Amino acid sequence: MLTAIKGYYEEGHIVLSEQAPVHSKTDVIVTFLTETVEKKKGKRIPGGLKGQATLPDDFDEPLEDLKDYM
User: Per the record, which residues fall in region Disordered (predicted)?
Assistant: First the structure.
């Protein structure tokens, strides 16, 4: 059985946010998410990508692959 439990590492100890679903000695794998924790999102700017994306003139036309079904 594979189970993921969120927690944090502080001063040499791993603290789990909930009780582990096992009651005997069990192997574990610990993954440190240092990039995710330190990464800060910038403020979103509405219309920030304006002019950087275009649609072809025939965007609303039926697709060639579907002509047999029409």
Answer: 43-70
